[in-house]
Amino acid sequence: MRSRYAAFAKGELEYLLTTHPEADVPEAERRQQLRRSCRATRWMGLSILSCTDGGVGDLEGTVAFEARHREGLLRELSFFQRRGGCRDGDWLYIKALNINAD
């Protein structure tokens, strides 16, 4: 989660695309949406509230976090899985299980 937050804050589109597979959305469209989002939001800080699983031997896990930005606060419970279902695979952001934006 921390690496994706940093990528959003720095506008690192390649990392964001690589760590969030969305087969049903064309890459050009995803890239355009991410570029717009990164330019529009000034991120101010991240707090990890809790994690469930997601350790060295796990294949999936969740992260509850708060991300502060100039206009408010994003609270989310995110679901992550290992790439390819392998214990040594990179962590991928799969989806938000719960979102609350202030």
Question: Any overview of this molecule?
Answer:
It is built from three helices and four strands; from the N terminus they run αααββββ. It has a single domain (2-101), classed as Nuclear Transport Factor 2, Chain: A. The chain has helices spanning 2-10, 13-18, 27-40; strands at residues 43-53, 60-69, 72-82, 91-101. β3 (72-82) and β4 (91-101) form a beta hairpin. The chain is of the alpha+beta class.
Instruction: Please trace the helix and strand order, writing H or E for each element.
Output: HHHEEEE
* Overall mean confidence score, pLDDT: 95
* Structural class assignment: alpha+beta
**Strand portion:** 35-45%
The outline comes out as globular
Query: How many individual β-strands?
Result: 4
Low-confidence stretches: none
Helix count from the secondary structure assignment: 3
What features would you highlight for this structure?
102 residues, Nuclear Transport Factor 2, Chain: A, 4-stranded antiparallel β-sheet, globular
Question: How would you summarize what this structure contains?
Answer:
This protein has 102 residues and is an alpha+beta fold.
List the helices and strands and how they pair.
Layout (H helix, E strand, L loop, with lengths): L1 H9 L2 H6 L8 H14 L2 E11 L6 E10 L2 E11 L8 E11 L1
Antiparallel strand pairs: 1-2, 2-3, 3-4
